[in-house]
Amino acid sequence: MASDSSSDFVFSKKSAIWEVNSHWTGMVYGPAAAILQIAHPKVAHGVARHSNFKSDALGRLTRTLADVNSIAFGTRAEAEETKKRLFAMHSKVRGTSESGVDYHALDQDLLIWVLATLVMASVEGHELVYGPIDLAHSLAEQPYGGDIDIHPRLRPLALLRTLSNISHKELLQHIAEGERATWPLLMRVRDQTCVSRALDAAIRRLSLADAQ
Q: Tens digit of pLDDT for each residue in 151-175?
């Protein structure tokens, strides 16, 4: 990992997530995070039926921390590999409880709930020991790539054909190639769009505050 450039990492080494997760202070509120997670009935049903936390609590904690760190400190390739593995594993966690509650580990609301508890534990633990996080500095230091290159797989002859009057069938083939090249990057497009909108909104609020 030492040979990787800073742009290869998901988060900057000067970002808040590096600052917070570089220490083990999140463990202070770890039990609170676990309790909050299973306080959600759907999460509780999924954990009770599909997790071995009762028989291997330490192992479960170790694996969770390893996954969190691979995303927080890892390269984009490492984070992507972790995401794929977790997606495949959690896609099987679904069912219906005895009381008729349907649950699925990939439910977006449940994912956000669990993520929020982990963020809470990390931030609260860090601030308890080291004081408030300088979020403004961390946001300023965090690089955000605005360009995403999408390269459809087109043969040289096909590229030349695009300069002429292509047929309807060829047009549909080009559209399909573009879609196939775009799908794997949709998560990055979504993330960068959200970041861009959040920064634009923050800049607008600061501008209005200065104007007043």
A: 666 565 555 555 566 677 777 777 7
